[in-house]
Every structure is written in C-alpha cells, then in structure tokens.
Amino acid sequence: MNLTSGTPAQARAAAGWAAGHGLDYLDGAIMVPPPLVGRAGSVFLFSGPRRVFDRHRAPLGDPRHLGADPGLAVLFNTALLGMIYATLNGFLHGAALVGSAGVPAREFAELALGWFMPVALDPAGLAAQASGMDEGAHPGDLGTMEMNLNALEHIARTSAEQGVHVDENYFALFEIFKLGPSRA
C-alpha cells in the first residue's frame, strides 16, 4: 500500500514492480491534513485490485475504492487538489479585491461563504452538470461562454483598477506560496 504523493504514471509503475515481485499493490491518497486522520469524515482514496482493497478494508476506516487502475487514486487526489486551490485562490483574490476598498475579509467571507458558495457550488447542480459533461451536452442559456468571457475581463479590469495582482504574471502567486508564513 502506497500513500505517498505521486503521479498516475508513478503509481502504475509501482504496481508493475509489485506485480513483478509477486506482491499485491494498492495506491492511495490521504485527503485530509494529518491532524484529521482517524476522525469521522476523513477520506482516503484507493485504487488497485478490488480483492486486495476488500481484504484490507476493515483497518482502513471508511475508504473509497476508485477502480482497478492503480493511477486513479492519485489522479482523483490531484483533481480534487485542483478544486481546492481554485476555490481558495478565488476566495483569496476576492478578499484582496474588496480589501483594496477597505472592506475587511470577515465581511467578504460572510457573503462569499454564507450565500455565494452554497449557490454557486451547489452539489446537486454540479452533479447535474456532470452528466452533461460526460455526454458532451451543454444545454441552456445561463452562463454562456460570452457571458463568462465578459466576467473574466471584468475581473481583470477591476483588479487592475484596484491595484490587486497587476504588476506580475498570475503565476507569481506561486512565489508567495513558497515564502511560507514567516516571510509572506
């Protein structure tokens, strides 16, 4: 069982190595920070042979088996991390944007988290969209590409006018993350 971070290709290579040595292999991803491991709601993702997963399931708590492909656990992990960082980046940018007008982040958080997030990221609505994504069907006239392009242009223009994230390429945000809390 491997619970280290990696890529789907690395997980598949490890599974191949294990099989070549007569060993069973499960690849996994821990989806909570260390202090939350073992608590209710902790999510662990696993992929690899179902029979191996089933044999070791009891001590794993409430794990999710994603399929026989050993690369699926780390692929889901990476996809979910992408969602986490997109959401966090959006919140941080929004707080910085209203903060440029002297609005406290607390005030922004009340509206962003109390109203916007539950409406914009409604799980039932996203689940309904997922079916269309699988089928290549994207009906409706709410949220057209043109409307979203206009919204992105509006965000960029307003950010520039407010002096938020204007002098550097967006990827410079990575440098801020690398600084760590003591130097940021």
Query: What is the CA-atom radius of gyration, in angstroms?
Result: 21 Å
- State the shape: elongated
What is the CATH top level name of the domain at 8-74?
Alpha Beta
Neighbour order of strands in the largest sheet: 1-2-3
Query: Which residues form runs of ≥5 with pLDDT under 50?
Result: none
Domain NADPH-dependent reductive aminase-like C-terminal: 69-165
Protein name: NADPH-dependent reductive aminase-like C-terminal domain-containing protein
Organism: Actinomadura namibiensis
Pfam families: RedAm-like_C
Structural overview:
Helix 3 (72-99) packs across helix 4 (105-120). Among the domains are: 8-74, Rossmann fold (3-Layer(aba) Sandwich), CATH 3.40.50.720; 143-184, no CATH class. With 184 residues, it is mainly α. The chain has a 3-stranded mixed sheet with strand order 1-2-3, with helices on one face. The protein has helices at 8-20, 50-56, 72-99, 105-120, 123-135, 145-162, 173-179, and strands at residues 27-30, 44-47, 64-65. The chain contains 7 helices and 3 strands; from the N terminus they run H-E-E-H-E-H-H-H-H-H.
Sum up the structure in keywords:
single chain; RedAm-like_C; 7 helices; NADPH-dependent reductive aminase-like C-terminal domain-containing protein; 3-stranded mixed sheet; 6PGD_dom2; Rossmann fold; 184 residues; mainly alpha; 5% strand
